[in-house]
Amino acid sequence: MTFDKALRLKLKKIKELNNKVYPVIAPEGVRPPFLVYRKSRSKLSKDLSGIINDIESTYELVLIADDYSNLDLISELLKRKLTGLLFKRLGETGPRIENLDLEELGQEYIYQPNAYKSSLLLTVNYKEE
To answer: What is the pLDDT of residues 13-40, one digit of tens each?
Structure first.
């Protein structure tokens, strides 16, 4: 299982999102709360013998909620879920997370569609076997 697939499965387990986790863009008309994520960077590690299986990837995660208290609640659940991945293998055949950095980029109100937004930057080092 790839990291991308494993990440999506883990994020869908946040029951407050009601399975509304989308890569890159949410479908038109979807109602909050929902989460959109995208991989913004990926880098293979190498040593003197060549490329090795270590990968560093950065993901942007954007959470949209209908009110601020819901945004705050789901943000905390999301951060807990993500930081809980450190040093774990995702699924039986998924990658093992070697390092993880989570950065909050801030929260804001969006006038159209009258919602609240929280952005996170997740950088992970993992090994796909």
So the answer is: 999 999 999 999 999 999 999 999 999 9
The DSSP line for the chain is --HHHHHHHHHHT-GGGTT-EEESSPPTTPPSSEEEEEEEEEEEEEETTEEEEEEEEEEEEEEEESSHHHHHHHHHHHHHHHHTTTT-BSTTTSPEEEEEEEEEEEEEEETTTTEEEEEEEEEEEEE--
Quote the pTM value. Answer: 0.88
Quote the pLDDT of residue 44: 81
Tell me how far apart the alpha carbons of residues 78 and 117 are, in angstroms, rounded to a whole number.
13
Cα 115–chain centre separation? 20
Question: For residue 78, what pLDDT is reported?
Answer: 96
Q: Quote the CA–CA distance of 37 and 114 in Å, as a whole number.
A: 20
Domains by residue range for the chain, with CATH = 3-127 (3.30.2000.30)
Q: Are 11 and 1 in contact (CB under 8 A)?
A: no
